[in-house]
């Protein structure tokens, strides 16, 4: 079944049966581009070669203690990497110090940083603490610093490709034992903190997401990053007995389209849709 025909069938089906918000959801489920063209699509977000790196710095990476890095570790334009060992970069991850791979990763890191900074905001959170908040996919803006004390919950609304962007004008700081958690136990690979200066994770912080900082990134003792990265453009990354991993827990599967359509518009309408598509060989 060709794409044009399938789009037309969905238009005909939903025209008299569902609301605009329901149409948008059906369109996103079936992967059609005729609805919601203004929205930022996570599929268009890419760190390029920087995605291979769990830790990337400009000047130096310094480690104290038994840190474990899952993913590559790199430095460019500097070359200093200290504290490995006792720190470990787990295979197939490797250390890239002032080589062409790290240089390209930094270029891609900067490109992604600039892209994130240019996104249109969904909500201005300036002056609010991220702790205690439950946020849905969107672009969240802080004109200056951002603080996380307690737990930040990210609710994907059932979309495993949900995009969360935090545009932070200056510093990102987390209090000791703070955390970033997801609402259903799965990780979301498209969580980005674009930080205008430095980022500091407090002792024992359990963090999820990618930190792209303009200057330094510091992880205090036992602060961990899961399903994310510490990427510093113009400064150092300082580690102290941390786990930093690009690996993400299994993502919850997207429900079958007709399950959601049935929920939205009733089983009779869903059956009519199914018959139309089946008759056309979809």
Percent of residues in β-strands = 25-35%
Instruction: Indicate how many domains the architecture comprises.
Output: 2
| Average pLDDT score | 82
Q: How many DSSP H or I helices?
A: 5
Distance between the termini: 5 Å
Structural class: alpha/beta
Rg over C-alpha atoms, rounded to the nearest angstrom: 21 Å
Low-confidence stretches: 1-39, 252-271
- The quaternary state of the protein chains shown equals single chain
Shape: globular
Please give the number of β-strands: 22
Order of helices and strands: HHEEEEEEEHEEEEEEEEEEEEEEEHH
Helix content: 10-25%
Task: Report on the biggest sheet.
Answer: 9 strands, parallel
Strand order of the largest sheet: 7-4-1-20-18-16-13-10-8
């Amino acid at each position: 079944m060709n794409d044009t025909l399938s789009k037309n069938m969905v238009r005909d089906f939903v025209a008299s049966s569902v609301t605009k918000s329901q149409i948008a959801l059906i369109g996103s489920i079936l992967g059609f581009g005729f609805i919601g063209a203004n929205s930022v699509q996570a599929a268009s977000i890419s760190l390029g070669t920087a995605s291979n790196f769990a830790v990337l710095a400009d000047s130096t990476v310094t480690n104290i203690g038994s840190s474990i890095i899952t993913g590559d570790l790199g430095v460019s334009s500097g070359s200093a990497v200290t504290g490995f060992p006792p720190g470990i970069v787990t295979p197939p991850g490797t250390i890239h110090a002032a080589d062409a791979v790290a240089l390209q990763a930094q270029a891609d890191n900067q490109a992604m940083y600039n892209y994130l900074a240019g996104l249109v905001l969904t909500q201005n959170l300036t002056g609010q603490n991220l702790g205690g908040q439950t946020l849905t996919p969107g672009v969240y803006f802080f004109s200056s610093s951002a603080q996380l004390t307690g737990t930040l919950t990210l609710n994907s609304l059932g979309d495993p490709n949900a995009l969360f962007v935090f545009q932070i004008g200056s510093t990102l700081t987390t209090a000791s034992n703070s955390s970033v958690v997801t609402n259903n136990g799965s990780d979301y690979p498209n969580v980005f903190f674009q930080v205008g200066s430095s980022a500091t994770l407090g002792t024992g912080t359990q963090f999820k997401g990618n930190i792209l900082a303009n200057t330094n990134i510091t992880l205090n003792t036992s602060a961990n990053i899961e399903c994310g990265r510490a990427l510093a453009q113009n400064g150092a990354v300082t580690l102290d007995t941390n786990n930093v991993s690009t690996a993400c827990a299994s993502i919850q599967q997207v429900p079958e389209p007709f399950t959601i359509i049935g929920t939205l518009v009733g089983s009779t309408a869903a059956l009519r849709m199914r018959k139309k598509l089946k008759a056309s060989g979809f």
